[in-house]
Design a protein that fits this description.
Blueprint (H helix, E strand, L loop, with lengths): L6 H21 L4 H27 L5 E8 L2 E6 L2 H27 L5 H20 L3 H19 L5 H33 L24 H13 L11 H4 L5 H10 L1 H17 L1 H5 L3 H20 L5 H21 L3 H32 L15 H15 L7 H13 L3 H27 L18 H19 L1 H12 L7
Antiparallel strand pairs: 1-2
Helix pairs in contact: 1-2, 1-4, 2-3, 3-4, 3-9, 3-14, 3-18, 4-5, 5-6, 6-7, 9-14, 10-13, 10-14, 12-13, 12-17, 13-14, 13-17, 14-15, 14-16, 14-18, 14-19, 15-17, 15-18, 16-17
Length: about 500
């Protein structure tokens, strides 16, 4: 029985099953219902495996296995701790929701190459789980690169000039930063420490033997810079243009990039490096993190300001993501237990909220082929279920209770005030106010403005998107409310790595 599987076996299945799913999808190319059934069944099994792993981790286990040792101290190895287990559950669970949504969107817009689309998704989710379960920087890097390569065909799916240009930016920045910055950071870490293993408390902190380098050493700043900019999927300015450029992709891809795997792999990587390579307490003793704290704060405000100018709804949401990802970087660079916990919970809350927003944007496009906010005036009265789901997701991103996004923002504000960074506290308040402007204004126009001249409806009928587009958006919208009430168990689950015990940590 599946319930009798060991967590190690569940990890094996999680990493291998998407490959079998890929071949099943390919073989069912001419039978769409079977093809998409294979996707959903694969997703459901992988999600169940992630739950088995997470349950074991919650009980104190650290399941793992080694694939191969290349040279001493350098191995392809997996081991799961609470942060990785959380990311694995988020990525695999939202893959199911995204797959349901993809059925409605891809059929509704009559997209070509749908088999290739689902095959690339399978490789990407395997990559995301490989990142979540990696035990060291080498394994992380391998799956990080596979994730980039497997999502490139998704970004360029439409195969037009805009898609090709967006794909070039996407691939150029992400490969350029990972090979040019992240790889040298990993090599330097190995040279200095003799290993790349993720070590609780920090590899550079050195444990009982003392730090390998002083926290104030310029080498620590250089290394942190290589990691912060090398993990380009975290979209810290100025390594962010790939994210808005990728919005040429179909909306299910946008939702996947922003909520399920790609950007979440980036900020997950930032947290892993801070917690397990440098160490939270070690960084707090030096000055290296301060520069990136202020850079992240700048990214929050600058990206929000750009989002306010965007008429294209997906572009507005893309710059919103650049801003919201920097919350995680702020939490990491505050170098406090509450800050790290706030950054970690932001991964979960943002995934639910932003996926809701993108799926609603796609639902509007499927139903009425509208992507510009200026063309959506009065549309909310004809698509009330879509627009209300959007508002719920927006409330979470803004940080309003009872939506999940209110807790990470509260924790980051608490941490900033406690650490004496009052200006960061002000930045987070200003960000919430800007969120209100760029997220709620379009929705208010949708409900209150006169109908756009380009919209024509039967006055007695609603004009909603297909159920396969609408239901997934409501699943994640409701998820933001559920997570609000269950944030304390999530914080307790993460406590072994963050050190935050509830709201008293």
């Amino acid at each position: 029985m599946l319930s009798l599987l060991s967590p190690e076996m569940a990890m094996y299945i999680s990493l291998i099953l998407p490959i079998f799913g890929l071949f099943g999808i390919m073989l069912a190319d001419k039978v769409p219902n079977v093809r998409e059934g294979v996707t959903l069944v694969t997703g459901a099994i992988v999600f169940y495996m992630a739950i088995i792993v997470a349950v074991a981790v919650s009980g104190g286990a650290r399941p793992g296995f080694e694939v191969a040792e290349i040279i001493p101290g350098l191995a392809i190895r997996f081991e799961v701790e609470p942060l990785g287990a959380m990311f694995g559950v988020i990525a695999s669970g939202l893959w199911i929701v995204n797959s349901l949504y993809s059925i409605g969107y891809m059929r509704g817009t009559h997209e070509k190459h749908q088999t290739r689309f689902y095959m690339c998704f399978a490789i990407a989710i395997m990559s995301a789980l490989g990142i979540a379960y990696s035990a060291n920087l080498l394994t992380f890097f391998i799956f990080y690169e596979v994730l980039t390569l497997s999502t490139f065909p998704l970004v360029t799916h439409k195969e037009n000039e805009a898609a090709r240009n967006g794909g070039r930016i996407y691939l150029g920045i992400l490969l350029g930063t990972s090979i040019g910055l992240l790889l040298p950071a990993i090599v330097l870490t190995y040279v200095l420490t003799g290993t790349t293993e993720f070590t609780l408390g920090g590899l550079f902190a050195g444990g009982a033997e003392g730090p390998i380098l002083m926290a104030t050493s310029p080498v620590i700043f250089v290394l942190l810079a290589l990691f912060a900019f090398g993990i380009g999927k975290a979209a810290l300015m100025p390594i962010h243009p790939w994210l808005p450029a990728a919005m040429v992709a179909p909306t299910p891809v946008s939702a996947f990039l922003h909520a399920v795997a790609v950007v979440k792999a980036g900020v997950f990587g930032i947290l892993k490096v801070v917690i397990f390579i440098f160490g939270v307490d070690f960084l707090a003793e030096g000055w290296a993190a301060d520069f990136f704290l202020w850079l992240a704060a700048f990214s929050v405000l600058a990206a929000s300001a750009i989002a306010m100018t965007q008429d294209n709804l997906k572009s507005r949401l893309a710059f919103s993501t650049v801003s919201q990802l920097s919350y995680v970087t702020i939490g990491a660079m505050l170098a406090t237990s509450m800050g790290v916990a706030g950054g970690a919970t932001q991964i979960a809350a943002h995934a639910l909220g932003k996926m809701t927003l993108f799926m609603c944007a796609g639902a509007i496009y499927v139903a009425h082929h509208k992507s510009l906010i200026s063309e959506m005036r009065g549309l909310g009265r004809k698509m009330p279920f879509t627009f209300i789901a959007f508002i719920i997701g927006a409330f979470s991103i803004i940080g309003l209770p009872p939506m999940a996004g209110s807790w990470p923002k509260f924790m980051l504000m608490w941490s900033a005030a406690d650490a004496g960074h009052q200006l960061v506290f002000v930045v987070l308040i200003a960000s919430s106010l800007m969120n209100i402007v760029y997220l709620l204004t379009p929705m208010l126009r949708g409900f209150m403005d006169p109908m756009s001249s380009g919209l024509k409806f039967d006055k007695d009928c609603l004009a909603e998107a297909p159920l396969f587009c609408l239901v997934p958006a409501w699943i994640t919208a409701i998820g933001t409310i559920v997570l609000f009430f269950y944030i304390e168990p999530l914080i307790a689950f993460l406590e072994p790595v963050t050190g935050a015990i509830g709201f008293g940590g």
